[in-house]
Design goal:
Helix content: 40-55%
Distance between the termini: 45 Å
Largest sheet: 5 strands, mixed
Low-confidence stretches: 1-5, 11-35
Mean pLDDT: 89
CATH class of the largest domain: Alpha Beta
Oligomer: single chain
CATH topology of the largest domain: Aminopeptidase
CATH architecture of the largest domain: 3-Layer(aba) Sandwich
Strand order of the largest sheet: 1-2-3-4-5
Structural class: alpha+beta
Number of helices: 22
Radius of gyration: 28 Å
């Protein structure tokens, strides 16, 4: 019953009117005690309900009322429950053809129509909710829940399903959401369409409907070019670089959907080695000879890239890693270890912001040691923080026993192993892997000495370990607000 109640609450949340405080913010404020009037606010935009009833277009509106009414009619005809899926899909395709020629402002008008004109019937939903609440704990509860679920299904869902009917419809919807996402913060009216698309995509792109395919040097050129286009972790510099990543001691796999042929939704690059890798440099060395894969016992996931912005919120990573691990184990029975070699993209920005606070956690002896290392009095916390960050700007010059180097490692361990926001890791890559059931295994000094690596994390990289037997345990720990870490990382956090 708790899961059902949570689902009902989330669904009802999409139907609630804007917060009364937000609504009040649109009204003029009364003069203050000093007699000054609040600055005039811009007039709120008209809703599509108001515009459809109007005769003239107001300044800033893309479609005139007549054109808006015509577009609404086209959408209603596509979503009409009395027409077949095929006919509905044909009508939706005609709207998609109009959309392809529309300006960004005209496209936004279509989104607003989808949001405001195809919402669930609020009266029907309220009645169904009251019936559901009254039936709780009785024999009528299952029927009342089913009734409420049907009431919450919006005409918008049927409309979007019609767009998915024609051949390029799925591509159209994914691209539409990618275009919509950047505007959500500035226009909350678009949130229902985004939520509806994310919910549908979570079903349509479920792992049960995806195909895992290996990408190799023999794959079609058009597909190989997609790897270059979408690689998000380590830029592919040349065809020689790409060929190295597809060599005999490497594997590359991607998830594909039947409605998006030859378009990897997410792909992973894997190196087959004898031990957990500590540096990206040898893995990207185009001149290095291929390793003997028959002796490999470790698979290193060194790059995972999602390709479709419009599928944000739809998780493939967990399933991809599990499927790849199973596929590799079948081909190479000696493989025992599955780990990543990952960047730490948020570390530098976090440390710059929190350097003084990190120093406050140290005892006087440690601060004095750091002060001597950068030739500054340790009691001057502000100057000490500035000098440490300056020294950290040249991490490759720091000796193995340098106090600054050790301090950077400890800060990185705390950043990955202790810092949470909303119950989730701060670092986006950590959030991905830890959310998929990995643990923070090891930090690697100078793991990425490239300009990008130095800028993001002072050159540090991290290994996340995927222990396939403990993935659920690690997820449970994270759900309790505890980041799964190795003993070495835990020791660094405590030092």
């Amino acid at each position: 019953m708790n899961a059902t109640s949570n689902w009902i609450s989330r669904s009802m949340g999409r139907l609630r009117p804007a917060d009364s405080k937000a609504a009040a913010a649109g009204k003029d404020k009364s003069p203050g005690q000093d007699g000054a009037s609040a600055p005039a606010r811009p007039a709120p935009e008209r809703s599509t309900h108001e515009r459809l009833q109007a005769t003239l277009r107001k300044s800033g509106e893309a479609l005139a009322p007549r054109a808006l009414r015509r577009l609404l009619t086209d959408l209603q005809e596509a979503a009409a429950p009395g027409v077949s899926e095929i006919e509905g899909g044909r009508r939706a395709q005609a709207v998609a053809a109009w959309y392809a020629q529309a300006t960004p402002e005209e496209r936004r008008d279509l989104w607003l129509l989808m949001c405001e004109q195809f919402a669930p019937d609020a009266t029907r939903v309220k009645s169904a909710q009251q019936r559901y609440e009254a039936a709780a704990g009785t024999d009528d509860a299952p029927q009342a829940e089913a009734h409420l679920r049907r009431a919450l299904v919006s005409p918008r869902a049927r409309l979007l399903q019609r767009f998915a009917v024609f051949a390029e419809g799925m591509r159209f919807l994914v691209d539409l959401r990618a275009e919509l996402l950047p505007l959500l913060k500035s226009d909350k009216r678009l949130l229902p369409l985004d939520a509806e698309l994310e919910q549908l995509f979570s079903t349509w792109f479920d792992v049960a409907f995806l195909e895992l395919r290996r990408l190799s040097w023999d794959s079609p050129a058009s597909l190989i070019e997609k790897l270059i286009k979408y690689e998000a972790v380590h830029d592919i510099r040349s065809w020689a670089d790409l060929k190295n990543r597809l060599d005999s001691d490497r594997r590359c796999y991607g998830f594909f959907h039947p409605r998006l042929p030859n378009e990897p939704l997410i792909f992973v690059e894997v190196a087959l080695v004898k031990e957990i890798s500590s540096s990206i440099t040898p893995l990207l060395d185009e001149s290095a000879e291929a390793a003997d894969i028959q002796r490999a016992n470790t698979a290193i996931f060194y790059s995972i890239s999602s390709t479709q912005t419009g599928l944000r919120g739809v998780s493939f990573g967990d399933s991809l890693i599990k499927h790849v691990a199973e596929t590799l184990t079948a081909e190479f029975p000696r493989l025992r270890t599955f780990a990543t070699l990952s960047p730490i993209p948020g570390f530098r920005a976090w440390l710059v912001k929190n350097c003084a606070a990190q120093l406050q956690q140290l005892d006087d002896k440690r601060r004095a040691e750091l002060g001597r290392a950068v030739d500054i009095e340790p009691h001057n916390a502000k100057n000490l923080a500035a000098q440490l960050l300056a020294a950290a700007d040249k991490p490759l010059d720091l000796a193995p026993k340098s106090p600054v180097r050790q301090w950077l490692m400890q800060c990185a361990a705390r950043y990955l192993g202790r810092e949470l926001q909303g119950g989730k890791p701060l670092d986006p890559v950590a959030r991905f892997h830890l959310g998929n059931g990995a643990r923070v295994e090891r930090l690697n000094w100078a793991g990425d000495p490239s300009a990008k690596g130095l800028k993001q994390s002072f050159g540090l990289m991290v290994n996340y370990l995927y222990d396939l037997k403990r993935i659920d345990k690690h997820r449970a720990l994270l759900a309790q607000g505890r980041v799964p870490v190795s003993g070495d990382i835990d020791s660094l956090c405590k030092d």
